[in-house]
Structure formats: C-alpha cells, structure tokens
Structure to design on (800 residues):
C-alpha cells in the first residue's frame, strides 16, 4: 500500500485516528500538559488515552518531560506531554519531467526551504531519487528527523491510481514511490504533481485558506487541479482537473491525448508561440513573447488574447459546474500577466452564470516551480498526519 | 440556523457527533447490547458513553429493555439498549414549482412511501406547507414519530445559501424551511431540489453506492448536481451543478439566466419542442415527441439528436474537469430513451479524454418525481443523523 489508507477503513479505526488527531490538536493549541489534564479535555477513557499517547510517544511525535518546579514537591513528579518540535519535518518531492523539486517544512508548517535540480528527460528513476535525496540532505543539513508527522508526499507526471488502490498495478509513480519509501524508510503518498500544486496554492499560496479552488496550469501542457471543501479532489478514477483536454474547437488540431481541438492545442506554451510565429513573429520562449508584447507588437497581444478567451470560456464552463471561490492560474504562461488574464476574465465573465460573476476571483499562482513539492507536504498534512503509526506495509489495526 | 450545523464546528463537537454515530452504528450492526458491552466495543470513557446514551434515549433514538431471561437471575437485571424501530422515520419534502412531493423512510432506510400533489404556481408558501403536512399524514397514517434520526430535508427551487450560513438572508427556501420547522417542530435542512435528486440517485437510484456521480436533469430548465466522494457537492457559494448555463453557442439565443447560448437554450423541454415545431412538427409535450420519433418522423429524431450532441459535449467538459464514475440523466426528456442517450454518448465519447471513455457509465434516472424528496431524506441521513440532539435554534454545546 503506497497510497493513502484512510479510505474504506471501518468506523473504529477512523475513530482512533480522530482520537490521535484530537490529542495532537490539543497539545498544539493548548501547549504542554499532563496526562490528567489531557484526559479531562478529550473525554477519552484512561485506557484509550493511554494507548494513543503510547503510540504517539513511541513514534516520536510526542515527548514527555518533567518541569523543574515539579521536582521540588513531594511524591513522584508529574510528567508533561509536549509535541516534539523536531518531529514534524515533512518532505515533499516533485518528480517533474526534467527536474526534481524538493520542499521541507517544520512542525509549525513553516517552509524550511525548497530546492530544485534539472536533469535530462532520460534519467532513470533510481537516479532521480538520488537527486531527491541529495536535495533533501542539503535542505535539512543532514539533520533530518522524520517523526510522527513525517510521511513523504510525492508528485509525479500523469494520472495516478485510484486513491487507496494497491500499488503495483502499473500506475505512474509506483516505482518512484517504492524507491522513495526504501531510501527514506517512511510511508509515501503519491499524486499527480499538477493536482498537488493546486493543493499547495490553497495551503500556502494564492488561495491560502480557501476551501474551493480551481487551479489551472498553462505550461507545455495544460492541466490543473481542484480543491473541493478544503480537500484535494481526485475523481472516481484519479482522473480529474483535465481542463487541458476540454474541447474548445471540434474542428481544431489533433491533441496528444487522442482528442481534437482540446484547450491544450490552443493555450499551451507551444501552441501560443506557434500561433505567434505563424503570424510572422519571432519568439522561442515566453520571455521573448512578453518582450514582444511590451514593445507593442499587436500580433503578440492578439495571439495571447485569443488563447486567453479560450481559457476563459473553459473556466466558465467548469465554474458553472462546480462553483469554486478562487481560480489560480500558474505555469509559464502566467508570466504574461494582464495580457493574458484580462482576456481570460472577459471570457469568463461573459460565459459564467451572471449571478456568479462577482463571486469569482482570478489570481496568479504564487508558489512557482516548488508548488508541487509543497503540495506533496500538504497532502501528507491533510491526509495522513499520523501515517507513520501505520507502517507502510501493513494496515492499521482495528480495535474491535 | 436552518442549515446544516456541522460546518465550522470545533474538533470536540465533531468528536461528540462521531461518538454518537459510533454508538448508533454499533447498535445497528451488532444488535441490542448492554451498556457494558457497548463500552467494551467503543473505547469511550464511562462518563462520555453515559452522556451519549442519555441523549440518545432522551431523543427517542435508543430504547432500553430488560430481556425476560434476565429477570430470572439474582440482582438488578441488566438493561439492554436497542435502536428504536419507530424512531427512524425520516421525511423529505420537495417544494417544486407547481407540486409538493413527500417521501418517508423508516429506520432501516427503506422507503415507506412517496406522495405528490400538484398546485398552481401562485400558491402561498403557507398553503404549500399545508399540502406537505397533509401528504406526510397520509403516508405515515398519522403515526409519525420523528425520533433521533428525524430531521426534515427540504428541497427548494433555485440556489440556496452557503451551507452553514445563517438563515434569514433572503435565500430561497428560508420561509418554507421556517414554516416546516414550526409545523413539524424539528430541525430542517434545505438544499436545491435538483441537487437533492442527485444525492437521491446515488443513495437509492441509478447510481446507488457510487461515490462520484454527475446528475443531469433535462426538464423545463436544465440543471444538475454532483456527488463528490459520496457527499453532495455545493461549491463555494452554494452555486454548483449549473450545467444548464454552460455556454454551447456564443452566438446562440438569450437565456433566462442573462447569458447567451446556454445549454438550457437548446436542450430544455421547451427548446427541443420549439426546434421541432420550427421544422413543421407538431408536438406540445414530450410524449407527443416520443410518438413522432416512434412513427419515424426524421425531423423529431434529428432535433433530439442535435440536443443530445450538445448535452454530450457539455458532459464531456464537466467529466474531464471532475471525473465522475457515473452520469445519471433525469427529467422529462430522459423519457426519450435511446433517441436521446445515443447522441449524448457519441458526443461524450468524442469529447472526453480518450483514456476516460471506457470508464464512464451513462444511466437513466430511476427515482422519477419523488427524487428530490428522497434526496431531502438522504441529506438528513448523510449530514445530520443526530441533528435533533441540537435544537434547531441553538448550537451544539462544546464539551471543552
């Protein structure tokens, strides 16, 4: 089992996880306290609480200490329970097509650092995990301690298996995840890296604190992700957020997906640059296109404007269907700024249910290329704060 | 507070609800048992368990009994706790534009019955609640007992407020919900009735047991609802499932929503009948159109086929974005059967991400006009199995 385990678990194991989360939440919010104080607040039986605390201490998530003042009194000094400040380092790794991105956060969920390294598209999976390990070592200064909050969230290119599905069915990321688990000796959660970038933007980025977020990535491919009710949305078969493959022109160009006239055929980096060159413009990359617009080249503006209109109409359709509060636009093309977002907003506004117009906010992504790696961490924090209690190869015990 | 209350509650009250659900689940699955047996299974402290059981008994959800055999022994006979078979009647009411639909289920979640009554579009809200009350009385033979599982789920036309939002902000359904609460003296949950039909189809209908369902209703209006991960999806502002207002033709007809060329302008009952009549056909309603197709009128088939193609392309866009497992098509036009679903499936297949084609299943709705009323019940069962513990006017107490 490489994937999240809380699916399909019984009410009792779910309750146990809730208990553990409650204990950690209380320690985080109320500070250090004794077992007795904790018992008074959480409403759990002594036996249950003892079990939970033992597991948390054993995993390194919680440490016990005796306050100096307690030694002065009579009798056995009372231990206090504290969250282990060293325990919470969480790691996210994004295995992009030609780069490895790594991010690390501490127990307070503050970003300790991010690092990236590009590589050739043919590099073996084993070598790519070497790169990840080196980057993690650099960020943590060799002092990495994966405690109770420490699983690793891994982003991979392309669709992944159904959440909770057994690994080894040939899904993207199976091998990478297995390698990461071997090297770091912790459980690994895997998801599509664009989807993880969506989760990261709603956790640390442009849509921080928003519960319903649509993230669109306009890059060499066009894709995205949805956060629904604060959680990453995956769809029935792990295929969702495929905004790039929504048809915008049934008579359009063939798409790499096998379809015809997908958004990706008109709004990817390659499509936009190609359309500009077809009009006699010269630009090999997005910065050159930005320069052309800045220098007043009307062809460049018009090409970007047309792509933006297509993007806006697709966003409107998706917004009518699912009603997000915020749209975040990332990827290389987002660097075009207002030249892109103005036509996007115009088409969005023209095609969205009028009553929704004022409710929608379009924002540029904030996390850049480290987004998906940070999303890996967000995945771990959202979905498995206590995953290391359950060794990667076995299921949580039911208490019944 | 007319709306669901579990949003924004703290971890402690959420935990209390989980505890209550656990106790009810254990009684439902394991049958009658003593407090001691229950305590051994659920892991709660005596105090917590005592509180939970007292509340459940006080609300009528759980009854105590002493088995005959227990009287024979010495000492005080041991009471056993049982789910109250009379307590679980749950009611759903759909206040449609020109009809009231009511559905009742028992504690085993079996449908006891459904009933409907049509009325003029001008009938006052007070009178419509009279109708509902009469229908409920008829279905329950006057023996209605709203126990612990009994809140009432109410469906209304149009968007409702944000879940958990205070009532009285002028949202659709505020008055109706308040009236129902007064008459039946129970908490009331409100949602859009088309969305409730979606939930009902995934609970008792064409998509029973499915976690990710797209429901499309092709009627005088075109709308729908989404079930995401087993729960009703609402969107950030209570606006989602507005498939009828996705643009299919930017040059098209003006739509009632204020937009242009929405799906509703080409795939509603009125639009399809209108297109047929524009070609010289004669049909005032869907049955007449069905007859025309059956009699081999190519104009009728072609009109339905064109509408179906539009529907399919919209469904493909939404499926690419959110990846449901099942699409359920309901509403009057669904009666067209294969004449409609074949062109829908063709367009869906042509426009959906090729890798998703074989994963998608399109099914006719099964619950008919009672769907939204049943959805009201599903809403209550999904979202507030214990809502009557918390009187409608006050918030649940936090135990901290």
């Amino acid at each position: 089992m490489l994937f999240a385990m809380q699916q399909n678990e019984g009410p009792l194991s779910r309750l146990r996880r809730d208990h553990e989360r409650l204990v950690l939440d209380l320690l985080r919010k109320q500070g250090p306290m004794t077992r007795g104080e904790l018992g008074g607040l959480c409403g759990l039986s002594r036996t249950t609480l003892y079990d939970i605390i033992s597991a948390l201490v054993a995993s390194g998530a919680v440490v016990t200490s005796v306050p100096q003042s307690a030694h002065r009194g009579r009798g056995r000094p009372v231990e206090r329970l504290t969250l282990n400040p060293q325990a919470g380092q969480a790691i996210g790794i994004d295995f992009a097509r030609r780069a490895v991105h790594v991010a690390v956060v501490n127990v307070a969920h503050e970003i300790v650092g991010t690092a990236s390294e590009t590589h050739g598209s043919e590099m073996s999976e084993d070598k790519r995990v070497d790169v990840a390990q080196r980057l993690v070592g650099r960020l943590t200064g060799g002092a990495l301690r994966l405690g109770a909050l420490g699983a690793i969230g891994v982003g991979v290119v392309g669709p992944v298996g159904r959440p909770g599905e057994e690994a080894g069915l040939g899904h993207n990321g199976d091998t990478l995840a297995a390698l990461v688990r071997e090297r770091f000796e912790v459980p690994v959660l895997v998801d599509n890296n664009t989807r993880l970038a969506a989760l990261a933007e709603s956790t640390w980025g442009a849509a921080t604190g928003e519960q319903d977020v649509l993230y669109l990535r306009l890059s060499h491919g066009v894709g995205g992700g949805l956060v629904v009710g604060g959680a990453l949305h995956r769809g029935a078969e792990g295929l969702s957020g495929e905004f790039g493959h929504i048809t915008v022109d049934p008579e359009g160009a063939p798409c790499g997906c096998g379809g015809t006239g997908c958004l990706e055929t008109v709004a990817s980096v390659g499509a936009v640059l190609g359309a500009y060159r077809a009009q006699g413009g010269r630009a090999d990359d997005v910065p050159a296109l930005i320069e052309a617009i800045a220098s007043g080249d009307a062809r460049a503006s018009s090409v970007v404007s047309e792509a933006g209109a297509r993007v806006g109409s697709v966003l409107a359709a998706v917004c009518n269907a699912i009603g997000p509060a915020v749209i975040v636009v990332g990827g290389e093309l987002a660097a075009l700024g207002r030249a892109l977002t103005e036509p996007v907003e115009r088409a969005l506004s023209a095609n969205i249910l009028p009553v929704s117009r004022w409710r929608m906010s379009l924002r540029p992504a904030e996390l850049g290329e480290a987004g998906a790696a940070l999303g890996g961490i967000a995945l771990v924090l959202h979905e498995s704060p206590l995953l290391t209690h359950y060794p990667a190869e076995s299921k949580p015990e039911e208490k019944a």
